[in-house]
């Protein structure tokens, strides 16, 4: 991990995505971020709505570009050690 990200909440997320143990600096930064986040219900609501909007947009894109989505999804599943989806069974 690069030094400019380490020691931040983003650094904590990067460790998590990579499956790495979180360093003490990133763990402390994430804890401070969460403490502040819990104090601000309006911020929580905005973040929850933003997440919902992102998810809805992704589902809409998946419908518009189904073949591309299925190919990308299969690639990601294989990269994570999962089998591709048997779409004949799931349709």
Summary, kept brief:
This protein is mainly alpha-helical and 91 residues long.
Structure description:
The chain is mainly α. It is built from five helices and no strands. The protein has helices spanning 9-18, 24-39, 41-64, 66-79, 87-90. Helix 1 crosses helix 2 and helix 3 crosses helix 4. The longest helix has 24 residues, at 41-64. It is flat and about 45 Å long. The N and C termini lie far apart (42 Å). The mean pLDDT is 91.
Describe the secondary-structure layout.
Layout: H1 9-18, H2 24-39, H3 41-64, H4 66-79, H5 87-90
Characteristics of this structure?
single chain; mainly alpha; 75% helix
> What general outline do the C-alpha atoms trace?
flat
State the end-to-end distance.
Answer: 42 Å
Beta-strand share of residues: under 5%
**Roughly how many Å is the radius of gyration?**
18 Å
* Spans of at least 5 consecutive residues with low confidence: none
Kindly report the average pLDDT value: 91
Give the helix/strand class: mainly alpha
Q: Major sheet: size, sense and barrel closure?
A: none
Q: Number of DSSP strands?
A: 0
What portion of residues is helical? Answer: over 70%
What is the count of helical runs? 5
Helices and strands, in N-to-C order? HHHHH
């Amino acid at each position: 991990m690069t030094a400019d990200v380490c020691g931040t909440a983003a650094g904590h997320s990067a460790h998590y995505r990579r499956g790495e143990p979180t360093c003490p600096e990133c763990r402390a930064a994430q804890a401070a971020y969460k403490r502040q986040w819990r104090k601000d219900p309006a911020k929580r609501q905005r973040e929850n709505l933003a997440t919902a909007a992102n998810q809805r947009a992704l589902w809409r894109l998946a419908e518009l570009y189904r073949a591309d989505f299925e190919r990308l999804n299969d690639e990601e599943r294989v990269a994570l050690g999962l089998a591709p989806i048997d779409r004949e069974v799931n349709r």
